[in-house]
Design a protein that fits this description.
single chain; about 525 residues; mainly alpha; Hydantoin permease; about 75% helix; about 0% strand; globular; binds tryptophan
């Protein structure tokens, strides 16, 4: 069967940007920056995008376009065509190293997974890495959809005019912010209320996917991405004109040396991969639909720039308000849900803008969750055909959907506390050691984004940089007939040296093997 292709380069860029720009930029980036030292985090983040994220993104697009397979066959094929027998043993060794690092953190479940990886990687090579990417993507979708559900609820609240709790009507923004923070805490503590939003979000994601790639994703992103930026600018305009906003801008843009720690770098690195959708099969999957006549360097550059702009704009929209209303910048995952209602409350036609804003966030989240489910579905479609005919799209989507929904329920019922599932809570705490973060959503996020993603990205960089080698791979970065010299060479250097060494150093520092 011939695979579908993107109809145009701009369509590919917008769809990739649509998958990259999502809750990671608008919900996660601000609270991660708030928890990890503001300007310092932002600076480290931007450097990581340029020197580690973009080279890996090009590598993933290359793998996809060259092999035109799902992630599992693609990884296996690149390993085979690189003719390297040692690559899989390097991968096993890395996995063993991860097991040791997890053991020092007493995270026994990850230790077990990493040990299983040692054997599987040695036996089956890089196609196992493809499975890891797929599983990580589905795990991320499981809690991503929970946040998506919060957004659905906030749209409902804005539409019914109850975004700002009754009691707070007509009082100062500071009071409004306090009440909305309490209201948010009460909301996530009642799983039955969270459940319907989560259900709606998953249902929309599944429904979108059944339409096929071109019809659904490409058309929608073309219209909605520009709208998203416009609405962000509206919120920024209000936020920076609140009294006391200047402090927030300074917090976001002024790096300080004391805030700099290896942990900040690990968090920034994890956030780069999360935000650019790397290490999760998706960029490989999208690349596999990309025509030979498109230039990968240009596409990756655009996606990186758009994604980083979206994150910075979100930071600019939120931090001035956070400081103006006296919230703590390190409020964690609830940051935007505490701060934004107070901003909208001071706006003319507040509920209208609030509804628009949360709707835009919903669309951004859906384009991302569709992409996340897409990579699972592509794998299932192309791998489940053994025995009889190829798996149907419908079955594949339903399998991915069911897996994520089940896993997501665990996050829904444990976001505030484990009151509903006490023994599972104790088990999670015992299994995850130092990676444990109080509830399942944050724990899974911590494990998946800060450890699994850098690991898969590191392995991809090693595969392309050392086994396949830039000498063979680089010419494919360009469209047919183009002849650029410097950039492909720079990419080769980055993917071979800078990305892998950078990620390895961060791992070593954070797990305490290199004292700082
Ligand atoms: N990058 C997306 C965001 O910023 C989230 C995401 C992570 C994602 N992994 C993905 C989206 C894979 C699509 C595919 O919100």
């Amino acid at each position: 069967m011939t695979r579908e292709n993107w109809t145009s380069s701009i369509g590919f860029i917008l769809a990739s940007a649509g998958s990259a720009i999502g809750l990671g930029n608008i919900w996660k980036f601000p609270y991660m920056a708030g928890e990890n030292g503001g300007g310092t985090f932002v600076l480290v983040y931007v450097l990581c995008v340029a020197f580690i994220g973009l080279p890996v993104m090009c590598a993933e697009m290359l793998i996809g376009r060259h092999t035109r397979r799902n992630i599992i066959n693609a990884m296996g094929k690149v390993e085979r065509l690189s003719g390297s027998v040692g690559a899989r043993f390097v991968l096993s060794t890395l996995s063993a190293g991860m097991a040791v690092a997890f053991a020092t953190m007493e995270a026994w479940l990850p230790v077990a997974l990493a040990l299983a990886g040692v054997f599987l990687f040695a036996k089956k090579g890089f196609s196992v890495l493809g499975w890891v990417c797929t599983v990580v993507a589905l795990a991320i979708l499981s809690y991503y959809a929970v946040i998506g559900g919060w957004i659905v609820e906030y749209i409902r609240l804005a539409l019914t005019g109850t975004l700002v709790p009754e009691a707070a009507g007509g009082v100062a923004a500071v009071e409004v912010a306090k009440t909305s923070q309490t209201a948010f805490a009460a909301y996530v503590a009642s799983p039955w209320r969270v459940l319907w939003g989560f259900g709606v979000f998953m249902a929309v994601t599944g429904a979108m996917l059944l339409g096929g790639i071109r019809a659904g994703i490409e058309r929608m992103s073309k219209i909605l991405m520009p709208l998203l930026f416009v609405l962000l600018l509206v919120v920024i305009a209000r936020s920076v004109t609140l009294p006391g906003a200047g402090e927030g801008i300074a917090f976001l843009l002024r790096p300080t040396l004391d805030a700099f720690t290896p942990k900040v770098v690990l968090m920034a690195l994890g956030q780069v991969f999360f935000s650019l959708s790397l290490g999760m099969a998706i960029t490989v999957t999208y690349g596999s639909y990309l025509h030979k006549e498109h230039n990968i360097l240009r596409a990756a550059g655009w996606v990186g720039v758009l994604d980083t702009c979206a994150a910075l704009l979100a930071g600019l929209a939120i931090f001035p308000a956070v400081f103006a209303v006296g919230l703590s910048p390190s409020a964690g995952p609830g940051l935007i849900f505490g701060a934004l209602p107070a901003v909208f409350d001071t706006m003319w036609w507040g509920p209208f803008w609030a509804a628009c804003f949360f709707f835009m966030l919903f669309i951004a989240a859906v384009t991302s969750s569709v992409a996340l489910l897409e990579c699972g579905a592509t794998v299932f479609i192309e791998r489940l055909r053994r025995g009889h005919k190829r798996g149907s799209r419908r079955t594949a989507v339903l399998i991915g959907f069911a897996l994520c929904t089940l896993m997501g329920l665990l996050s829904v019922f444990s976001t505030a506390d484990w009151g509903h599932l006490p023994w599972l809570g104790r088990a999670a705490e015992a299994c995850m050691g130092d990676l444990y973060r109080g509830n399942w959503l944050d724990t899974l996020d911590n494990f998946a984004s800060n450890w699994c993603l850098p690991f898969t990205a590191l392995s991809t960089a090693l595969l392309v940089g050392w086994a396949w080698t830039p000498r063979r791979a680089a010419p494919e970065l360009l469209a047919a007939g183009e002849d650029w010299r410097a950039l492909p060479a720079l990419w080769g250097f980055l993917v071979r040296w800078v990305s892998p060494v950078g990620i390895l150093l961060v791992f070593l520092y954070v797990s305490g093997f290199l004292g700082l």
